[in-house]
Amino acid sequence: MQQTEKTFLAKSEIKAQDLEHRRKINFNMQHYEAAFERGRQQFSDMPTARERAKNVKWRAIENLDKYLEEFEARFTAQGGHVIWAENVEQAQQEILKICREKNARTVVKSKSMVTEEIHLNEFLEKNQITPIESDLGEYIQQLDGEPPYHIVTPAMHKSKEDIAELFHQKLGVDAGLTPEQLTQVAREKLRLEFQQADIGITGANFILADIGGVAVTENEGNARLTTSFPKTHIAITGIEKVLPSLNDLALFWPLLATFGTGQQVTVFNTIFTGPRGDTEVDGPDDMYVILLDNGRTQILKDEAVRESLYCIRCGACLNACPVYKNVGGHTYGTTYSGPIGSVITPHLRSMPEYKHLSYASSLCGNCTAVCPVRINLHELLLINRHESVEAHLGSGSEKAAWFLWKRASLSRKLMNMASGKTKDKVIRKLFSKAWGERRELPVFAPKSFNQMWQENKAGR
Ligand code: SF4
Predict the structure, then answer these.
(1) pLDDT of residue 80
(2) Atom 4 (ligand 1): residue with closest C-alpha?
(3) What ligand 1 atom has the least distance to the C-alpha of 151?
(4) Whole-number Å distance between alpha carbons of 197 and 284
(5) Which residue is closest in CA terms to ligand 1's atom 3?
(6) What is the pTM of this model?
(7) How many CB atoms within 10 Å of residue 253?
């Protein structure tokens, strides 16, 4: 068993019994669910909206090369720079190069999972550049020295009391502040950072091929400050975030807002098409877009799991997943957690190291049911399992268990010899190592069908 799997199982065991964690998560999830129910009313025909969204993403991903080149040509013509990064190291080095050219000492960031994926904060710190998170949730997580817990709500696992205590400990403010006071504290601290930062870094919710634009959606206005105060703006994004046209946002912005946070539309929606123009008063002198592959073309190559690239990172599948709600976001030990994380991480990183995540699912299908772009998440988890078995990555004990199971099942004599109770015991013994002690296993009937049939025929 790989160390990643052992760690995942050990952390899951602890988290699943942590009732306080469950209480906080359930509290926050209930808020999300209520908001989602209200937000979804704006769609008169939700199934069609989701089907259309899936079709748009299908077209975008099937023609990814064409749309990315279209984006590059237009964005470059508007004065921006496009950088292609194959992996984490290349992305880090490109960002460092820009920071060095601009003599940057401080970088202000808005929320971006791709910067988590490339471990940007740690990398910048190692190079004596201070990264400041400006999204409130990310700011809280940075203060606490933790990665985001959830792809949309980074501090979902913390209560308002936890955050008040954290601010008291780390920032020296009074204990027991209210959420409004805490927000005010963060706002005051961050204003200064925005003014002093040399570079602003954002992610991208979508990249728009036909206008060469980067679409960013947010609720706090921090992404706008990140991109307007500093003289340089770097947007880093996965290559799968492309949409063919600006017009597609008419569907995707409300869809992301509703499935992400239950809003009709997010508060601030901005499209960046390059650096500040001659006639414009706001905006950076220079703008760079880094298009990150980092394993995405591996997924593209694999037709069976390709549709996982349709994901718009709304987080709805995490909120719907009974496993995520019990073990929590940090247990996965990956940038992307929950069902979508379990699907893509084995492909983005390594199947031998992360295949176990594809088994961290009850296969209830709730993730598929809630996905706005109708990704067949639970089917993709099964495909991952299949691929890992085909690659002979299963554990020795599970292989032995299936071998013995098959031998016994094919033997009428053996099946009739053992009672139901004996079979229950044998099955538990065989599979408990591979599947864990707590897995609910099928209970055998006291007699086999064949025995009952024979008895019936004999009139007993
Ligand atoms: S897989 Fe679907 S539900 Fe999950 S984050 Fe992506 S778009 Fe949202």
Answers:
(1) 98
(2) 317
(3) 5
(4) 12
(5) 371
(6) 0.91
(7) 18
